[in-house]
Amino acid sequence: MSCCSDIDGTVYKLKPLLHDDSKQLFYKRVFGSEHGCHPELKETSEKILKKCGGVPLAIITIASLLANKPRNISEWNSVHNIIGSGLEKGFSMENMRQILSISYNDLPSILKPCLLYLSVFPEDYSIPTDQLVRRWIAEGFVHGQHDTVSLLQLGFSYFFELINRSMIQPEHLTDYESCRVHDMVLDLIKSLSTEENFVTTFDGYQHADLPEKVRRLSLQNNEEGHNLTDATLNLSHLRSVIVFPGATNLMPPLSNLPVLRVLDVEHCRDLENHHIAGVEKLFHLRYLGLRDTNVTELPKEVGNLHCLHTLDLSHTSITELPSTAIRLKQLVRLYIEDSVKLPKGIGKLKLLQVLSSIGVSSSPDIVGELGYLTELRVLHISLISGTGTWCKSYEKPLLDSMFKLQKIQELHIQSFGVPTDFIADLGWFPQHLKDFLGGGISRLPSWMNSSLSNLYQINMSLYILRQEDLQNLGLIPILRYLYLSIVEIESTEERLVIGTGSSQFQCLYHLSFDSCRAMGLMFVQGALPNLVSLDITLRARETKDLYGDFNIGLENLCSVRKVSVKIRCTSCRRCEVDSAEADIRKAIVNNPNNPMFDITRCYEYELDEEQHHDNLEAIEEEEQLQVINQLVLYSNCEPLTI
Q1: How many CA atoms lie less than 13 Å away from 552 in the CB half-sphere?
Q2: Is the CA virtual torsion 161, 167, 172, 178 positive or negative?
Q3: What letter would DSSP give residue 343?
Q4: What are the residues whose beta carbons fall under 8 Å from the beta carbon of 146, sequence distance 6 or more?
């Protein structure tokens, strides 16, 4: 990477900055602005800036370090004295490395292995955040309670702390779904990792300077077709193997890895069954990640893996779990596809906390056994999957099981094609619920109300939305993200009003509203006081026919900073879509917060072009008539009319 970015997303090239730009970057990162700097720190700040020599990465790194330290002169002088003087005399890789080393040495001890672990990834690799956190947990770097969700939350807090210290950079600032490591930072990490024999990278080219004993092995980029037998490596102490796409044929025989704890071959689509031969003999294995590979079945003896905590089989061709899987008594996280048939007795996995995703029609026995998995925190379930069918007899045992899941924090239910009144009327109280996704539900569940004090994210597709539903949703105290896809709005005469009252949607940060027909919402003055991002989708023809206009109150959202509008053009006249876009654009422009906005026309190729051509012909006929009338006036004849 030839550039770096601040935590707010501002991108800087490696070319040295002018002094004023250096000051602005430094003070913005530490204090928010130059005016926020305490007078006694001004002189030391200038000395530190001078030593950074205008190099953006050095400035951001040191500023991030100081932002996490007490703002007193002794601390700042200490940092100044540690920094070498080379950068002020000209750019030097060695001095840049020294500055990065200062930031590394200042890290809390719990974050150092998390940062060093990044050396397993290739240069310029886009690192998915969830994958990174899951691997930290598998390696034992995240120390906390045994509660999986708590470990995930703790792992993500480690991630954001490294972002805050500018040791890693978010790839997309709006979602933090992935990150990258600056090549200079990665160079330091790899050097430290080599010194501590933390990670060994093998890519088919390196044969010298490999350690005799390998602890963690990262296999990458085997373009030359080499294998590990060409290198004299002692793998008897190997604890982790991470394989990247293109390096599958570098994998050592699993029978040679007696103490292996982590095997992760995620996204290696050329990985087949023979590559994992002998996996059932890895008695110390805690993490087996086969996600997005071409594996079609697990060995029948997989139940021998008595230490296994995580089994990830999502996006594979596996259709059934072996019956011995019910012997995995230490299993905490199981990721599968909802089409996978589960063995009878899955309820014996008493420690299971994550189950994603299961299909009732694929594994009917799960409706009764689910109630035994009382430690579940994350449950993703599909009522119909593959070619399966739904039986009404599943309803009662499923409801009985759901009542027993009192620790659920993340619940996703896909129910398309299934009568869902029994879900909407489910008389339970998931008091720990934080994240809910519901697909194909008839109406808002009656249990979704202000009593859900931990619920911060809802993603639902509902057949019908009522005014009372908006009121109930608005009273959920810490709701921050709301995604609604609606088929029908109950009222056909007036729009539903959103955000009225002092307690309505006080914490909502993002709202996504997809109206399959007419746009039936109205944002009144003062609605959604903390809304930052809004996405709406509407049909132009239905909205115009039902409500007469496109006035939905976008100008009333006082805090919104980004608005995205999608207009569906199917069966519309072009003039109708033009009118819709003009009205929406005008409302956004009139918003006093001056938000960024994007208006997109969807399915524009489905415009009613026949009517469009009729309009064009009428316009052309009118223009021709005007010309004729001009000629008539010159000839003193009576003007023509249509």
Answers
A1: 24
A2: negative
A3: P
A4: 332
pLDDT in tens, 388-434: 788 888 989 998 999 999 999 999 999 888 888 888 877 778 889 99
Per residue in 500-511, pLDDT (tens digit) is 776 789 999 999
What distances in angstroms separate CA 249 from CA 262, 272, 291, 337, 492, one per listed residue?
18, 11, 17, 26, 62
- The Cα 434–Cα 430 span in angstroms is 9
Rounded Cα–Cα distance for residues 119 and 108 (Å):
18
Phi and psi for 243 in degrees, rounded to 5?
Answer: -115, 130
Highest mean pLDDT among 180-184, 591-595, 607-611: 591-595
At 72, is the pLDDT very low, low, confident or very high (cuts 50, 70, 90)? confident
Say if residue 357 is preceded by a cis peptide, omega within 30 of 0.
yes
- Tokens at 231, concatenated: 């290198």
**Cα separations in angstroms, 184 against 55, 102, 199, 224, 504:** 12, 14, 18, 27, 48
Q: Pinpoint the alpha helices (H) of 404-502.
A: 421-424, 467-474
Rg, Å, the chain Cα set: 30
Phi, psi angles (nearest 5°) of residue 373: -90, 65
Instruction: Please indicate, yes or no, whether the overall pTM of this predicted structure exceeds 0.70.
Output: yes
